[in-house]
Task: structure prediction
Amino acid sequence: MEDNRTYLPPEWNNEERMRVLLGPMPQTQDIVARNARLTFWSAAIHLWCKRTNKLVFTLQETLAAFRRGTQVPLCIPEVLVHMNSTAEVLPISELPLGEQSQESWLRWGQRIFVATPARFTWNKFKKIVGVSNVEGTTYVDRVMLQEMCDQVIKRYWESAAKNYPVNLPVALPHLYHRINECIGSADNLHLIVETLAYQEQAATTVHNGTTYVKFLMPGDTSKPDITMADLAEINLLCALEQVQDNINNINAEITEQQNNAKSSLQSGSKVQALSCLRKKRRLEKSLSKQLGALENVSNCLQQLQETRINKQILHAFKTGMQAIRDSFANDISAEGVANTMDELQEVLEECKDINSVLATGVMEEDVDDSSLQEELDQLMSTDQKSLTHHDELIKSMSGLTLPDVPQSNPLSSLNAQPSSPTVKATP
Result:
């Protein structure tokens, strides 16, 4: 029976090879075999996580994923311990998540000089004595996690302008609906967002029971921040959407009550028709109020967005002013400009002197002018003779005439047959 698991390595169909790989880990003395086994299963686990979009897994899930008939890889526990020691995978409890809070110097010293060395020493001790809690540990593939983090940021900014306002916090359910094909489950998205928050590439907050995330803009280095203006704009957008839904529902109910009134009149129930019309009238009053609320929410949202745009413009002005001030601060003053102009004038004078020297040319040797005059007269006489000969040739050719163009074809006479001579009879 064909195996449809796409993450399986190419050696999976090799019976002899897999019988060795599924066996227990070789002894410590056989370093080559141990390294080969660790390399094979580490690559297989990474490929399994990538093909199935699986960030979090346990030992039992790993054994089930690589079960081959009744055989399971017996060396997987030691492989996970090795991958943990190289930080390829980490227990989810040790994974740094969430935004980093400002800690005091005392707390920083305790974390650096006490907590971290103690944890490192304990892990080394467990490895030496052979004690590990692999069976009860939930691991996270750090390589796959970082790849998914980069993919989420890339996909978000590719579709941000089309699906939601740029640089505005987005709800996690909305974000998951847009990029679920590249991250798998919603739990993966929560893990990715918390990791990005720890890396200061995103900021998160819980607002009205929904988690919102704001990503770092491309090219920006400062940590993103969710402000009260962002939350207010989110509230207005939610209110605007809710009012629009209410208006659509009321319009549908008004149409339904109007149709019911017509049906009641056709069936002869005048009282029922009047009741439907009263409901329709109440719905129309409610619709008028909802339209007023829609107008108010739209105006407030527009003013808030204009305020945010004005704030960005003001920030741009401040940045430009600071850039101009910094540029003038670097030796750009009245005295500095005067010194620069003096230096420039000196350089221009040096260039002028150099150009004047180059313009004098190279001194030539004295040449006898009389010999030059004789050579010039000889050239002129030669040119005069050539000109006279040319004029005589033109005069001799002017007397020549060409025959007139014939009016008929000269060859036509050749086609005519000669007539027979007439013989006169003698008397």
